[in-house]
Design brief:
The protein is an alpha/beta fold. Among the domains are: about 90 residues, Pleckstrin-homology domain (PH domain)/Phosphotyrosine-binding domain (PTB) (PH-domain like, Roll), CATH 2.30.29.30; about 140 residues, Leucine-rich repeat, LRR (right-handed beta-alpha superhelix) (Alpha-Beta Horseshoe), CATH 3.80.10.10; about 110 residues, Leucine-rich repeat, LRR (right-handed beta-alpha superhelix); about 260 residues, PPM-type phosphatase domain (Phosphatase 2c, domain 1), CATH 3.60.40.10. The protein contains 24 helices and 55 strands. It has a 24-stranded parallel sheet, with no helix packed on it. Strands 38, 39, 40, 41, 44, 45 and 50 form a 7-stranded antiparallel sheet that branches. Helix 15 crosses helix 16. The chain is globular. Keywords: Cytoplasm, Hydrolase, Leucine-rich repeat, Manganese, Membrane, Metal-binding, Nucleus, Phosphoprotein, Protein phosphatase, Repeat.
């Protein structure tokens, strides 16, 4: 449309694009384009008029003394009328509230000063200055302003100009590094709310006492050492908000003089004494908050009208209160042995006394007439009073983690709705429990020694309303199944880790409303077919049993999660179609399970599918292939609809005998844990090249990972824990050490001689006084739920950059030497260790031993103990000798004699100096997408599994095997364990465009693989021939012994198979962070290479973009499917072709010498041994075609 600026010369027009956006008219400065400079005309308070002298023309004018005018001519009458109608509405608007927070402004936009109707102005989180046209000195120009928010602007001084805005009723100057308040504050006689939190104030002017209408004054997180005397004159203020100051003593007589104060908040003050020097009663205070102080005794009997007291996390040994009006008492996490309240608090409804030293409950507790909730968990109680349990008001009783041996009988019907008695010494429950407590909906008696449960009723007809029943960790047998029938409203049943041999089929069919069933850790051989009657069942967890028949649960319409791991399944009978609701199926740990291609195809839509692949190692290989450790992990989403916990497990890290394990907990977000899971191991590998000091490389790893989170880490964060097992740099062949670094609440525990040794530090405000003090000194606002700015309870996280400097990414670093008494290592997130103590976790793993089953048991126990959040656990079993060496006696093997190979693991990944290096994981399962490649992967698994015992040959000389000092074979599964679902928000991958031959449907298939790294007898050390010498000399011209040559071939053992790559392209592959993720590793977005699309992994990698952008340039982890199998029919031809090529060093190089691949390896004197580890046995047709070799060679 045509536009003209100004009021004269109507014949001078220019064609421009014009937009009516919100309350502004935007005019482009370039023809037919919105690029370049934009002219913005604010219309609020202005005018829009029709130009009579020109057809279809409107005049737009802004308000104020410097008003501007634009004339806009329209082509049609319809456009003219529509614009006129809309613009007229805009100019007639009155803007009363303006929010300009978080815009990095240094001045107020000047046109706002012409809007005289503004009453609320929010300038929070900016960089406002005093001077300038839009500086704070001009704020008095807002004549109607009532509310002004200038918090978080780093002002440094109190802006006295705001004291001239006499209309203000609300003023927020929090977090501005203010040291004084000017006397001019007394001018604001209309002020009702004044927020001065998070500054450096230590005193207030007397003029403040003249503000008669002030009813809310925020002084939290300043430097006050006493309650300001000026508060005595502020009669309208009813709340004293002074949390986070330096008030060490409180005189109750001071509060008595301030008769208008009803609510006192003195938490986080370092308060040591509360004194009452006179007998004067403090009658006006009704709510008192003394949490997180240093009180060892508290006598508040003079506060006669106290209704609510919060004194958690002190060191209270005694507590004395007045009970006249007391309604709520919160005194958990102290050292209380008794609580004295007089008279009996007949108004008391809620009382929390958990985590104290109570051996008995005071008598007055049973006399409370209105008590509804009582929490006495984690005490030393040996009995519960009968009068308490028979109370006619008690609805929720939490008495877990005590020493109770019996529960008193119920004498009459009681209103009890929730009863928690877990972790006691109960052998039986009251016979009348269920038919006397008809309102009981929640019962948790896990971790006791129950052998039976009471009946649901005295007759056949049951009136039970029980919905959640937790019986985990008892001694129940199959007879309890008949007693569960009466609870027909049951929705959640956990009966794991008992002595069940079976579950009555007829009884299970009666539980039609069942939604969640956990039968793990029993001795079940089958799950009754009547489980199909539970139409609402969405979760079935039955791992660690002896189940050999797949249950009929895939026909249930709402089934979401099925966990049948660690059982004895042999086959699966499936319906023609699976329910669309099925999201996770775990079949790992079933050693005899064989899956057909049809079955795998049916499973292709499942988001998370976990399977095992059969090991191809022989009996002789297993001794030398193992490392001094193996791991298992488990993750459970609980009642969340997403999994925000991720784990990293790398049993073979770097070139030597090293390992890396990690766990990441995003609390409410899943993006950051997955990003850390994909890259943190690679970052550590790179940092190890620059420093050997534990505090240096670990801190740099965390800081670099924090930086690489990019935009995702601005407002999102995660707790992170990283464990690195290694030899000391000064003694590479000596003792092993464990270096642990963590931020947040993820924790690591080492079992040494059967006792737990904590290796991490919990960085939460409630658990770490040093961090609490640091955050207070930096003037953060800690809300009443102990969260920094109401966001997180952690003072150190990866991410959450906008909370700096309060929340930092700097980790705690600790190195612990390992010894033969170290049995295993446990990694877990906050949810796990909140429910399972260190000692119980150690005892649990000791009883199970298998790391995977132990990790699953830890998570199942935490769920049965009441955890509703995401749970993650990693268990690492350690086998450390006296000198950190696990040498074993000589054993006879079927391997041929020959020179010993180099003690360096061989893989297709780059050497240790390459930042893209991340060695493979050992043991465990790995997850990846499985839409169209599921059947092919199953074909490979089936074709290689039958080749387990084919290696045979002349008996060789017995050799000494050592896990720390590798022998002829080394076990190196093909990928590090990536456990969580991959995010679909684009943050997980630095590939913006989809790659050819790559599937990305969000599904995953887990496969466990073994790699025989020395299948080709790679050697290092002094060359044995002039040809070898020449090759080594040429190889030394390149860093780390890597060689780049034209038309040469790299040969490596990957899962016992041959991988041939054009030599001129391999270096480019390794150098590019983008393509290195494809080079023998799993894509960070969870996708895999489909065999039917491209059999040559390297060809696919070469087609990937080699850009170094995106959130992460570090490589992801390698995929179990990334392998090439040499068919028997092509083996001889491949050998002949390879003889004609120049050999090339491959795999990671040792610091001093590089492993040399020699042509004579193909003419090994005992070819059967080579063939057995390279060529698959009978099975489905091989997937590698002839033309693939032609292309690669």
């Amino acid at each position: 449309m045509c536009v003209r600026k100004g009021k004269t010369q109507l014949h001078k027009w220019a064609e421009r694009q014009v937009i009516l956006c919100g309350t502004c008219l935007i005019v482009a400065s370039v023809k037919d384009s919105l690029t370049g400079k934009m002219h913005i005309l604010p219309l609020v308070g202005g005018k829009v008029e029709e130009v009579k002298r020109r057809q279809h023309c409107l005049m737009f004018s802004s308000a104020g003394s410097q008003a501007q005018t634009y004339f806009v001519n329209f082509d049609t009458l319809a456009d003219f009328q529509r614009w006129h109608r809309q613009a007229s509405k805009v100019v007639s608007q009155t803007v009363s509230m303006v929010d300009l927070s978080c815009y990095s402004l240094e001045a107020v936009p000047e046109y706002l000063f012409y809007s005289q109707d503004i009453t609320h102005l929010n300038l929070r989180h900016n960089f406002m200055s005093l001077q300038g046209p839009g500086g704070l000195l001009n704020l008095p120009r807002f004549s109607q302003l009532k509310s002004l928010n200038l918090s978080h602007n780093r002002l440094g001084v109190f802006p006295e100009c705001v004291c001239e805005i006499l209309t203000l009723t609300e003023l927020n100057l929090s977090c501005n590094n203010l040291h004084t308040v000017p006397v001019q504050i007394g001018n604001l006689q209309s002020l009702q709310t004044l927020s001065l939190d998070g500054n450096h104030l230590s005193s207030l002017p007397e003029e403040l006492g003249g503000l008669s209408q002030l009813n809310c004054l925020g002084l939290s997180f300043n430097n006050f050492s006493h309650i300001p005397a000026v508060l005595e004159r502020l009669s309208a203020v009813d709340k004293l908000a002074m949390a986070g100051n330096r008030v060490e003593s409180l005189e109750l007589c001071t509060l008595a003089r301030m008769s208008h104060l009803k609510n006192i908040d003195l938490r986080l003050n370092g308060l040591r004494w509360v004194k009452s020097e006179s007998l004067e009663a403090v009658s006006q205070v009704t709510q008192l908050d003394l949490r997180d102080n240093c009180l060892d005794s508290l006598d508040l009997s003079s506060i006669c009208n106290l209704e609510t007291l919060q004194c958690q996390r002190n060191q209270l040994g005694t507590l004395t209160l007045s009970g006249f009006t007391l309604r709520m008492l919160h005194a958990s996490s102290n050292r209380l042995t008794t609580v004295n309240i007089y008279p009996v608090p007949n108004q008391l409804t809620h009382m929390e006394l958990s985590q104290n030293l109570l051996e008995y409950l005071p008598d007055w507790v049973c006399d409370c007439r209105k008590i509804e909730m009582l929490d006495v968990t984690h005490n030393l109680l040996s009995e519960l009073p009968s009068r308490l349990l028979n109370s006619l008001s008690l609805r929720k009783l939490l008495a877990g983690n005590n020493r109770l041996q019996r529960v008193p009988d119920l004498l009459d019907h009681v209103p009890l709705e929730a009863l928690d008695l877990q972790h006691n010494k109960l052998t039986e429950l009251p016979e009348s429990l269920f038919y006397k407590a008809l309102n009981l909906k929640y019962l948790n008696v896990s971790a006791n020694t129950l052998e039976s449960i009471p009946p649901s009723s005295q007759s056949e007809e049951s009136l039970s309303t029980l919905q959640e029943l937790y019986l985990t960790g008892n001694s129940l047998n199959e007879n309890c199944g008949a007693l569960l029938v009466g609870h027909q409203n049951l929705r959640v049943l956990h009966i794991a880790y008992n002595q069940l041999l079976s579950f009555p089929a007829s009884k299970l069919s009666k539980l039609e409303l069942l939604e969640e069933l956990n039968l793990s850790g029993n001795k079940l051989k089958t799950i009754p077919s009547t489980v199909s009657s539970c139409k609402r069942l969405h979760t079935l967890i039955a791992h660690s049993n002896h189940i050999n028949v797949f249950p009929e649960i895939l026909s249930l319409p709402e089934i979401k999660l099925v966990d049948l791991s660690c059982n004895e399944l042999t086959e699966i009978q499936l319906p023609d179609s699976l329910p669309a609701t099925l999201q996770e199926l775990d079949l790992t740990g079933n050693s005899s399970l064989m899956l057909e291609h049809k079955t795998l195809n049916l499973f292709s839509h499942i988001t998370t599918l976990k399977l095992d692949q059969k090991s191809t190692t022989t009996a002789g290989d297993s001794l030398s292939a193992s490392t001094p450790w193996n791991h298992g992990y488990s993750e459970m989403s609980g009642q969340r609809n997403k999994l925000c916990v991720s784990v990293l497990t790398v049993d073979r890290f770097g070139d030597g005998v090293e390992a890396c394990y990690g766990i990441f907990d995003g609390d409410r977000n899943e993006e950051v844990p997955r990003l850390l899971q994909c890259t943190m191991g690679d970052v550590l590998c790179e940092e190890l090249q620059h420093s050997s000091i534990d505090s240096v490389y670990m801190c740099n790893t965390f800081l670099t990972s924090h930086r690489k989170l990019g935009m995702a880490g601005q407002k999102l964060g995660a707790s992170a824990l990283l464990c690195y097992i290694h030899h000391e740099p000064s003694d590479p062949g000596g003792h092993l050490s464990l270096t642990v670094a963590n931020v947040g609440t993820c924790q690591a525990v080492l079992c040494r001689d059967g006792r737990p040794v904590a290796l991490s530090k919990v960085y939460s405000l409630e658990n770490c006084t040093e961090e609490m003090e640091r955050v207070k000194v930096s003037k953060a606002i800690i809300t009443e739920d102990n969260k920094v700015s109401g966001v997180t309870c952690c003072s150190r996280l990866l991410g959450c950059s906008y909370l700096s400097p309060w929340v930092l990414p700097k980790p705690w670093v600790h190195t612990e030497p390992l010894c033969s008494q170290d049995e295993f290592l446990i990694l877990g997130n906050r949810a796990l260790f909140e429910r399972v103590s260190y000692q119980e976790a150690v005892c649990t793993v000791q009883a199970v031993r298998d790391p995977r089953a132990a990790a699953k048991k830890l998570c199942s126990l935490a769920q049965s103990y009441g955890c509703k959040d995401n749970i993650g656990a990693v268990v690492v079993s350690l086998h450390i000798g006296e000198d950190s060496c696990t040498c074993e006696p000589p054993v006879s093997t079927a391997e041929p004699r020959g020179p010993p190979p180099a003690p360096v693991p061989v893989s297709v990944t780059p050497g240790p100096a390459d930042p893209a290096t991340l060695s493979s994981s050992s043991g465990g399962v790995s997850e990846f997408n499985s839409e169209t490649s599921a059947s092919e992967v199953g074909s490979e698994a089936g074709s290689t599994a039958s080749d387990e015992h084919q290696s045979s040959g002349p008996t060789s000389r017995p050799e000494r095997r050592c896990r720390t000092h590798p022998g002829l074979f080394q076990r190196q599964p093909s990928c590090a364990t990536f456990s969580s679902n991959q995010s679909d928000n684009g943050l997980d991958s630095d590939d913006e465009a989809p790659l050819e031959g790559v599937i990305s449907n969000g599904s995953k298939l887990e496969v466990e693989v073994d790699i025989h790294c020395c299948a080709f007898q790679l050697r290092s050390g002094a060359p044995e021939s002039p040809k070898d010498l020449d090759l080594e000399k040429r190889g030394s011209d390149y860093p780390n012994g890597k060689m780049r040559r034209q038309n040469s071939v790299v040969v490596s053992a990957t899962n016992g198979c041959l991988l041939a790559v054009c030599g001129r392209e391999i270096t480019d592959l390794k150098k590019s962070p983008s393509t290195s993720s494809l080079f023998g590793k799993k894509l960070s977005n969870g996708s895999v290479v489909a065999p039917e699309d491209s059999h040559n992994l390297i060809e696919v990698a070469l087609e990937a973009p080699k850009k170094k952008s995106g959130y992460f340039t570090a490589p992801a982890q390698q995929d179990p499917e990334d392998q090439l199998i040499v068919p028997p029919s092509l083996e001889q031809e491949v050998r002949e072709q390879l003889r004609g090529q120049s050999p090339l060093v491959s795999g990671p190089s040792a610091p001093s010498t590089a492993p040399i691949l020699k042509d004579p390896v193909w003419d090994h004197p005992h070819p059967p041994a080579f063939a057995s580890s390279l060529v698959p046995g009978p099975g489905p047709a091989p997937i590698l075609q002839q033309e693939v070799y032609d292309t690669a060679l």
